[in-house]
């Protein structure tokens, strides 16, 4: 039987320390339920274009968690050979691209979202990678290379069909995120600039494949998101508790919004009236009114909220059952892929230490 995602906007917030995803009704500003992530210390979340599925990834777990958003449950886990950074979906939603790091460097795994199986993996860099984005028309992937020399940050421009790297574009120091403008004309790369007082954003002309501007933002910027109209971009500055508002026509900062202590991820609702910012230190999701550039409330979620994504509208999850009553295409229906042996023990120790550290931080104020 098909499940229905409620019509009210829903935010899905990854709680890294609890291995859960909080489902937040942003209209009533409350958490309505939680979903097991099926993996250790989940960090990033991507929702399929039809709003039916969410894929979770983490640099701590060699698994991709798959959530059924119609039923608010863990559907399956996809075993990976290596840990992963980001997941992006093709425009049709038929494919998911997973940014992974292997002993030989950065690679991208291509997953068939109908079967949740890895179709192929292709290398993109001898260096490790730390995130990626996809062009709105699906014609290009953009992968951030993590070079050992912090002054040589680069973006690899990739043909997803052939896996060929078409060009490398030099950006700033310690690049941490990349997003493409809804029109596809620009890509913004967040540079943490670890040795500087402030970070920056490299502005890439996607047609010319060159950097056309550099925008100074706040201290230790983390993530960037474009307004649905493409006219502005928000950058979270985890080092000074602010969000920089960038005008994409002039590539200038036109506003600074004080938020929680260490803002991490930021997303807009589908019409752009509000933006939502996660803070792993205060365990809250801040809600920004984009017309006034002011925080209009916040929602307490789980421990160490990280990645955030929104379901755009009411959707029907096409939960087709096979003869055994399992979801069609499930690899391990409703069960996470376990991580065993030494790695499992190490992950549990790391998760415990992290949780205790954050608890101590909260006690210290």
From TrEMBL:
Coiled coil: none annotated. This is YncE family protein.
